[in-house]
Amino acid sequence: MSNKAKIREEAKKLNPIDDLMFRTMAEDKAFCEEILRVILSDPELIVLESTPQYAGTNPQGRSVVLDAKCVLGDGRKTDIEVQKANDDDHQRRVRYNGAILTTNLTDPGQKFENVPDVCVIFISRFDIFQDNHSLYHVDRIIRETGKVVDNGFEEIYVNAKVKDGTVVSELMEVFVDDKAYNNKFPITSGIKRRYKETEEGQQRMCEIMEKINEETKLRINQLNAILLKAKRYDDLERTTYDTSYQEQLMIELLPKETDS
Asked: What is the residue extent of each domain of the chain?
């Protein structure tokens, strides 16, 4: 099988739960608006702006690439993350991503009262809390009184594993099942169908995958050259088995490639 044929076969397997398809679908703010209306239980919610693969930089530590950053009509900023593998401490990941998004959106000297409200939505194949709900809201609660307090940071966990008959669970079915489409989510279903079933959509996904493969090879070579020149041999060795660390270094050392 040729390389192009292999890429085409891989493209056919993609669903919205996969980073590549999700980020491509998130280019359409109407898609983000539809799923956020469901997840946030707000049928009137408006998305003013959606930015897939938003680079959140941290000059003194780990930088991140968010799957999609959205600006809502009420001023809130949201980070939507999709995750298939239960292979990390994802609660800390949510905490960190929210902090990076907050700092990247806050100007120096800005009063704390004007720090933007941020919501991180974590969508996964697995039930992170294993309590048989498709949707979890994590609140800050005063231990002594049980009162919920709000500091402008919200975290929501959605999963495709639990089938509890809710509209969120129905949406997640579209995210993970190859053949699942639902008239309740016409935009999500329509974009998914276009990329999975039409020649034009398949071609687009293949082109994106080929471009990513080529760009990744180039960026790896550039990163390796930088690390060698700086004699950062331990970092170079670590990138051979730690892809997350490799991506972090790319964000920090190759800002132009990440921001493009």
From this structure: 3-197, 202-260
